[in-house]
Amino acid sequence: MKTKRNFLLLLKKIFSDKAYIRIRYLFVFRRFPNLKKPKTFNEKINWLKLNYNNVELTKFADKYEVRSYIKNQIGGQYLNTIYGIYNSAEEIDWNLFPQNFVLKATHGSGWIIICKDKSRFDTEQAKTEMNKWLSQNYYDLWGEKVYKNIQPRIICEKFLEGRPEEGIVDYKFYCFNGIPRFLHVDVNRHNDQHYINFYDLKWNKLPIRKGYPNSAKSDRKPESLDVMIDIATKLSRNLPFVRVDLYEEKGSVIFGELTFYPQNGLSSFYPKKYEREFGTFISLEDIKKQKKTFFSSPSWHMLHRGRHILSKYSGFEKLITQMKLKRGDFMDDDFIKYMNSADQVLLNPISPLKLPKVGLVKDIDNYGTFVQKRSHWPKYERFLINNKIPYAFLNIHDSDWMEKSKEFDLIIYRPDNSPSGVFEAKTKIHYIEKYLNKFCFPNCHEIWAYEDKVRANYLYQYFKIPHINTFISNSKSETKAYIKQCSYPFVSKITCGSVSRGVQLIRNERQAERLVKKVFAEGRKTYWTEQRQKNYVYFQEFVRDAYFDLRIIVIHNKITGYYRLTPDNDFRASGAGIWQLNVSELPRAAMELAVRVKENLELTVVAVDLMKPKGSKEFLVIESSVFFDVDFPSELYIDDVAGYYHWEKRNGKLSFEFQPGNYWMQELIALELVEKYQKK
Predict the structure, then answer these.
(1) Lowest mean pLDDT among 10-19, 81-90, 124-133, 519-528
(2) Residue partners of 33: CB distance under 8 A and separation at least 6
(3) Which helix (H) or strand (E) holds 104?
(4) How confident is the model at residue 200 (pLDDT cuts 50, 70, 90)?
(5) H or E, element range at 96
(6) Are 469 and 623 in contact (CB under 8 A)?
(7) What are phi and psi of 10, to 5 degrees?
(8) How far is CA 404 from the centre of its chain?
(9) 260: pLDDT confidence band, cut at 50, 70 and 90?
(10) Contact of 111 with 102, CB cutoff 8 Å
């Protein structure tokens, strides 16, 4: 077994995930899997391993963390009793356990120790075995990404007696997009009489064998079969495939686990026709549609700099415009329908106060007469019209901007995020606030750190906000000393850049030396043609095994958010265009940290990008911004329901309550701005 494990680890280290899966499949089935157009059950399971990036699966596969999901979905009465959760075998106090119990690893499959009599139990041998589990990453052994970022722990559960003649029986339901279709009964798992039998949901025995022999006899139908089917239906909702494993103990159903890749997708059905029949129930089309296109991939971002350079050629600009037209990025005949897909955001009509006259600055789109759907100003305008707030468009870029700005009480301005655009905004917003005494969004304080990672990091340090370890220096000698003693790889960033522009992985000292030499000489070219990275470095710790980050958006007392997934063969989630908006819940700790950032930095709105390194007890801030682009009315769905978390402080503690709703973020921002104006 040790030889096999070492061989698998070597293969996993040498080859990519795709190559590793193909090789292992070849060893078992004597042929390569068809991963381009998978047909069979096992081909589709292996395709899902590579392509289905759902961050919720990590929580679902964690044998401890999944308990909160089960409690929310079907109720805590279906959970087995636990006696403890431990980070190491040495933490265990064996005196707290009853005479029989079960030990499991939270971060793997098949790692289990059963104790039927504590008086005869070898605790030292058990500790040796558990420490072996804790030292391993199940993903490195078997290539199942759901286990990659699970915190290794030991969980101790109640021993389930089951039936006197055969012990506890597993009922494993094969579910496809929320529809259970088959189950197999797993009997005598831990002795040499182990067998499995397949049944349909009406308890008709099926002539199927998979992995283990069948029994000639039919199994007794469980008393709670209908309850089990209902549970399996609820737990498998929105998942292309999951096997829901349940037990029946004294007439009660007990949840076992959620299994996404049965036998790692390496165990065939007999007769062979069932291999394809089971495969037909797994639909991959919706997942394939969600996969990133060229236009949302890092490859597309490489063309942005070229676009700046070639923008003087009208033919090139026409080509870019045609590409974006084809993608449906511009306002069209369906734009009104697109805008009205969100609920209206209205002022409180009970005590109407003076309304400001609003100067609305249009985003710079740079596409002639075309306006992009993700532009901010149409959403602000919708709010102003619906609330009968007087407004006019302000061309902040014309030479008479100072005189025109005097006409307004509130100016809403979404600056272009280029260095020249940010410089213009900082200059003019300072003048508008200080010399014209006008209310402005963003205000001087908010714009100070906008698109400036260095300034934002100084604020995190001052307010002691937990953030990714960062080295910032304007000293060549200090930076040269740093790169000789730091850990590699690390991430280098330019101070002004979004969607992973100017983000680079520095893999070794030689590469770092070349970067430092250029930065502290003529300067290093960046995405922006008008700016070089000169006389400063911004290095962040590289967090390994992180295939997503979490964006939390806080607007007044509302919180929304989503996960951003990293594409294959890249470490950058930002700009990859792979989002997950629908989750079972947002982590409370992440929301608390985002609220802290908003309050400490005194921001009207903030989008905070967070990461939780493996083994860490807290979320860390990567970066934050007062502006973010929006493609959909809602940036959050909790179990398919669009909405947000309403937060408030009660006795010094934050409380969060989910509220249904489907809103444009800009309208929520406008609501807060108008209410702030009325209160000043």
Answers:
(1) 10-19
(2) 21, 22, 25, 42, 43, 46, 47
(3) strand 101-105
(4) very high
(5) none
(6) no
(7) -65, -45
(8) 44
(9) very high
(10) no
Alpha helices, DSSP H, located in 356-452: 377-386, 401-405, 419-434, 444-448
- Whose CA is closest to 281, among 247, 243, 229, 226? 243
SS3 186: strand
Q: Is the peptide bond before 352 cis (omega within 30 degrees of 0)?
A: no
Per-residue tokens: 463: 């307010």
Question: What is the rounded distance in angstroms from the CA atom of residue 48 to the CA atom of residue 546?
Answer: 19
Q: Please state, in angstroms and rounded to a whole number, the distance separating the CA atoms of residues 53 and 61.
A: 14
Per residue in 38-85, pLDDT (tens digit) is 999 999 999 999 888 888 898 899 999 999 899 989 999 999 999 999
Q: Which residues of 132-157 are buried (b: 16+ CB within 10 A; e: fewer)?
A: ebbebbbbebbbbbbbbbbbbbbbbb
- Alpha-carbon gap, residue 492 to 397, rounded angstroms: 33
Per-residue b/e over 459-494, b at no fewer than 16 CB within 10 Å? bbeeeebebbebbbbeeeeebeebbeeeeebbbbbb
Give this prediction's pTM: 0.79
Pairing of strands 582-583, 637-638: parallel
In tens, the pLDDT along 274-331 reads 999 999 999 998 777 654 433 333 443 444 445 555 555 556 566 766 776 666 677 7
Of 340, 240, 243, 242, whose CA–CA distance to 290 is shortest?
240
User: How far is it, in rounded angstroms, from Cα 24 to Cα 20?
Assistant: 6
What confidence tier does 222 reach under pLDDT thresholds 50, 70, 90? very high
Q: Is the peptide bond before 271 cis (omega within 30 degrees of 0)?
A: yes
Paired tokens of 51: 């392509």
Buried-state track 258-288, b at ≥16 Cβ within 10 A, e below 16:
bbbbbebbbebbeeeebbebbbebbebeebe
Q: How many CB atoms lie under 10 A from the CB of residue 413?
A: 22
Token pair 């069932």 is at which residue? 274
